[in-house]
Each structure stands twice: as C-alpha cells, then as structure tokens.
Amino acid sequence: AALALDNGLARTPPMGWLHWERFLCATDCATDPRRCVSEQLFVEIADVMAAEGWRDAGYEFVCIDDCWMAPTRDNQGRLQADPKRFPNGIRKLADYVHSKGLKLGIYSDVGNKTCAGFPGSYNHYDLDAQTFASWGVDLLKFDGCNSGTLELLAEGYKHMSLALNKTGRSIVYSCEWPFYLRPMQQPNYTEIKQYCNHWRNFFDVYDSWTSIKSILDWTALHQDSIVKIAGPGGWNDPDMLVIGNFGLSWDQAVTQMAMWAIMAAPLFMSNDLRHISPGAKWLLQNKEVIAINQDSLGKQGYRITKDKNFELWERPLSGQAYAVAVLNQQEIGGPQNFTFSLSILGNGLACNPACSVWQLLPASRDWGVYSWVSSLSVEVNPTGTVLLKI
C-alpha cells in the first residue's frame, strides 16, 4: 500500500511561505489591502521571494491558507475563489507564481466546513482534487475541522490522498490528521505516512516564546513515537516559522530556526517578507542551517539529555556528521555555561576517535578538533540555542 500511495514528493522537508499566522482570516481589502488575504498579497510575496533570495535559499512554496474561498460552491459544485479578493482566479495566480520559479499551495478541509466556516471538501474529495490539479496547485494543506467521527476523519484523509494521486499532478499533501486524532486515540504513524507528506501533531504556533517552548516540550515528550517515522517522503510538522514578526527576541528566533532544523521540520515561514529585518532575513536564509534541515539522510533529531534548564539535542546527518543543539530554557538571569562530554553523542560514535566542531548559530565559528574523551563547554543566552555541527 505504501508503494502504491507514494507520490515521490517531499524527499526533504518542504520549504516555503504560508499566510496563516501573520495574516489570519483578514478579508476586508477595502480597509487594509496590504494585509488582506487576496491575490495581491500572494503576488507581492511571490515577487519578493523571487527577487530577494528566498527562492534561491530553498523556499519554493507560496501557500494560501483558510479564507480564500467564496462562501458557496459554483453551479457545478466546484470550489471557487472569492471573486473580489481573487478577481483573476486561482489558475491565473498559480501561473504567475510558476512564472517566478515558485510553486503554489492551497488549503481545504476534510469536513463539510473549513475552520473559518468556508466550504469544506466532505463529499467532494475527488472533485476538489481535480479542481486543484486543473488550477496548477502544487501543495494542499488539508485541515481537520468539522469532520464528525474519527472514522470519517480517517476516511477523508485517505480519500483525498488517493484523489490527489489520481489527478496525475504532483501535489504535496500536508495533513492535520494526527492532531485531530490525538485527544481520542494514539495515531498510527505508519498508516499516516502512507497517505501524507507531512502532518501536524500539536496546536497552532503563535508568535510567542510560550508557543515555541510548548512545541519543543511536546516534541521531546513524544519523541519515542514520532521521531522514528520521519524520513524522505513524510515529516512531522511542528508548524510555521514566526521569525521576522513581533513576539520572539533574537535568541528565541535563533532557537526556533536551530530546533526546526534539528527536528527535520517543514520550513514554512509566516511573516511579511515585504518588511523584514536584515537579521531575520540572515537567519531564515542561513545556508548552513538550511543544509542541516534538508540533510539527505532524512533522520529527525531528538533530545538526548535534560539537565535543569539545559537540553541537549542531536540529529544524525549524512557523511557520519551530527547536528547538536544546546538549548537554554531559563528565562531569567544572564548567559549560562553547559558542559557535556563528546562521548555521549551518537551513542559514542559521533566523535570517535576525534571530530571537528563548527558552530553555526548564533554565529558561525570554528571550534577546532576534539578527541573522543573531550568535553565541550558552551555558553548559551536565556531562551537561546547554540547550534553545532560535529
């Protein structure tokens, strides 16, 4: 079954931009056209992504989230874009995005209504998949609101996966399936990976340190069940990068970027790329950190130790290398030192008999060569992370 359903996509975690966290369901274009969920917003974001290095850094998807639709389907039962906010329709928008060397993502829901109350895909899975393919869509984010029973939820996610494959168009399939299952039952991740390219497990990200910390804590708590399933074709999705917005300090932004790389997370920014600071742009476009996220071995990282407020995470990389993150969750005081033995990394193999250590974040720095019996002492700011490559 897995082979039959494998769409050959998402061999590494997908990267792009998604409107939701920053722009939500803003539909009043008359009052505030530059913040409205509209054709204009996605055209302008595509222009910036092509012109200012985002596409070249790997961010290839421009994704529409909820609230793009008209309140009703058309006379033939098809979904349609809001005619005032998307006057040229989704097909024309997809053509424009493709002309910039980018791909278009769109949103729908497994239930009869989306989370914001627009028409859902229930009882229309095949028709909606065909519609998205005919428009030239390259990714579908499929939400789980208003789905009824757990049986209908599972049936809907599977049906849409098959329907997308039947169109013959390569469409990345982003699911919220395990998140909606979890309150009632433990998800079967082997089954979910047969149908989905990436999947959300936890609550929506907010533009705050509390939100980032809760996602990291949840991931560490559940790593025994979720880390092993991630790999080429299917990824755990901790939700959007909110770097470049308002809620994170510099150190917290570094932590999100470093930890999303360690977790092999899809990298979907939700910010206003038309107005972003040079520091946030440097962090989000950091080639060395993106290379860790996109590593071809495709293994998700995990926490190996917790000592008071410090956490040590590692991620196996290709070429017998490892990414190592030292996270300081303390929210009071100044920088603190954390010392650990290199012999604990990679079950003792990462640094045996010796290894070079390179710091990637918060700044690039060569630490030199160390032996297997050495210890490293790392100074980390409160709520900050030091990301190393071993």
UniProtKB/TrEMBL annotation:
One of its GO terms (cellular component) is lysosome. GO terms for molecular function: alpha-galactosidase activity. It catalyses: Hydrolysis of terminal, non-reducing alpha-D-galactose residues in alpha-D-galactosides, including galactose oligosaccharides, galactomannans and galactolipids; a globoside Gb3Cer (d18:1(4E)) + H2O = a beta-D-Gal-(1->4)-beta-D-Glc-(1<->1)-Cer(d18:1(4E)) + D-galactose; a globoside Gb3Cer + H2O = a beta-D-galactosyl-(1->4)-beta-D-glucosyl-(1<->1)-ceramide + D-galactose. SUPFAM superfamilies: (Trans)glycosidases, Glycosyl hydrolase domain. It comes from Tricholaema leucomelas (pied barbet). Belongs to the glycosyl hydrolase 27 family. Residues 298-384 form the Alpha galactosidase A C-terminal domain. InterPro entries: Aldolase_TIM (IPR013785), GH (IPR017853), Glyco_hydro_27 (IPR002241), Glyco_hydro_27/36_CS (IPR000111), Glyco_hydro_b (IPR013780), Melibiase/NAGA_C (IPR035373). This is Alpha-galactosidase. It comes from the Eukaryota. PROSITE patterns: ALPHA_GALACTOSIDASE (PS00512). Keywords: Disulfide bond, Glycoprotein, Glycosidase, Hydrolase, Lipid metabolism, Lysosome, Signal. The lineage of its organism: Eukaryota, Metazoa, Chordata, Craniata, Vertebrata. Its EC number is 3.2.1.-. Pfam families: Melibiase_2, Melibiase_2_C. GO terms for biological process: glycoside catabolic process; glycosphingolipid catabolic process; oligosaccharide metabolic process.
